[in-house]
Write a structure and sequence with these properties.
Blueprint (H helix, E strand, L loop, with lengths): L1 E5 L7 H15 L10 E3 L7 E3 L26 H11 L1 H5 L9 H12 L4 E5 L6 H11 L7 E2 L1
Parallel strand pairs: 1-4, 4-5
Antiparallel strand pairs: 2-3
Amino acid sequence: MRIAIDVNGVLRDTIGKFKQLYEKHLIDGYQGEFTNPTYIMDLSGNTEVELLPEPFEYKVLSSVNSLDLQSHFAFQNKEEYYSFMYEEYCMELFGHTPSTEMTTFNDLNEIYVNYRDKVDFIIISDEIGKSKPATLFFLSKFGCELEKILF
């Protein structure tokens, strides 16, 4: 028999950490480029005034009920979303995230030790780029004893 265990949402509280980072760095920490309405005036005698565009508003769009986080959090585009996840906050999101429960890895290691001769345990995760080493760091940080990991 083979049992696969997903990292995101089962072992790691990825959604909770994503929400925390999003609120801290994009909502609370967002320093908009334009805090007050800014006007551009042409000194050549033209009396028309051009208003600069409003800054993008980062906000939580809906309660999170899936791993498609882009549909629950406002981003300007897909590139910004991927940059947030896999470049700017990759280690914080995938490596320094807490486990879903306090005893998750104690229970997992105990099950593994008791059944490793009868069951083929595999940890699976849908990761790209730098999130792979961050996930390996997460697993090692909590002392995961399972031997097979599949990205």
